[in-house]
Amino acid sequence: MTTEPLIITCAIVGAELTRDVYPYLPLTADELATAAAEAVAAGASIIHLHVRDEEGKPTQRPEIFERATEAIRRRCDCIIQYSTGGAVGTPLSDRYQPLRLRPEMATLSMGTMNFGTEIYENSEQTIETIAAAIQKEDILPELEIFDYGMLDTVDRLFARGTIPPRFHINFVLGVPGGMAATPENLFLLWRRLSPDQTWTASAMGRHQLPLTTLAMTMGGHVRLGLEDNIYYRRGEYALSNAQLIERTVRIAGELERPVATVTEARRILGMQ
Ligand code: KMH
Ligand code: ZN
């Protein structure tokens, strides 16, 4: 089993969750910065960032990303990874706007899919437009893989030069409409990767803990956080993003996976 340092990404808020469902959701720049600083203190090195407008609604407005980024930077060092997915239904013309702020990383979803009862639109044209903005600003993309065929899209667009030579992969399992969060599916996806490809596993709800733990044993990295899961255990809300990370750090210790510092994460991802 690998003893390579474990990169923990924290998806601190997402775009879909509301305070009606989870009352402690971080929304303002200050709240996001506190959530990020706590997550980093607990062991996260990447913060996957969505932001909300003055009414708490998901937005891709660059000035709001800028405010949150500055607030996070004042509190801690971490790799800030902007979402280009936004919320289901965010127009393409908005989705890539924050990239002009040149974050270190940004997501790139690799295909259209059902997303619960809605449709998460990522046509080839959409992917190409966002990928072009990512390449223009020299940002490291994290390719979001929700289903098996999206890896074929990666190969096709990579061959065409749409996707830059260096990228990180995130398997996002358990979205209704995408691949289920099962060990069999994680193995299937993982077997497609070249040995030197860095990858992370994310899983929705109650699958977050078992799937990310499995990924740790397979040599992968993990994403935790409220965007994907608001429960610490059955029937009990997580108190914070940090609480979810603290548990995984304890498990990583038992598995002899040291937790990556931010500097180590940058090195592992080839960002230096
Ligand atoms: N909110 C989802 C529809 C991303 O951040 O790039 C898309 C998403 C992916 O969260
Ligand atoms: Zn996201």
Structure description:
The chain has 272 residues and is of the alpha/beta class. The protein is 36% helix and 19% strand. It contains nine helices and 14 strands. The strands form four sheets. The protein has an eight-stranded parallel beta barrel with strand order 1-2-5-6-9-10-11-12, surrounded by seven helices. The radius of gyration is 17 Å and the shape is globular. The site of zinc ion (ZN) has 7 residues, from loops.
List keywords for this structure.
single chain, 272 residues, alpha/beta, 14 strands, 36% helix, binds (5S)-5-amino-3-OXO-hexanoic acid
In brief, what are we looking at here?
The chain contains nine helices and 14 strands.
Secondary structure elements and their pairing?
Layout: E1 8-11, H1 29-42, E2 46-49, E3 51-52, E4 58-59, H2 62-75, E5 79-82, H3 92-95, E6 105-109, E7 113-115, E8 118-120, H4 124-136, E9 140-145, H5 149-159, E10 168-173, H6 183-191, E11 199-203, H7 208-218, E12 221-224, E13 231-233, E14 236-237, H8 241-254, H9 262-268
Parallel strand pairs: 1-2, 1-12, 2-5, 5-6, 6-9, 9-10, 10-11, 11-12
Antiparallel strand pairs: 3-4, 7-8, 13-14
Helix pairs in contact: 1-2, 1-8
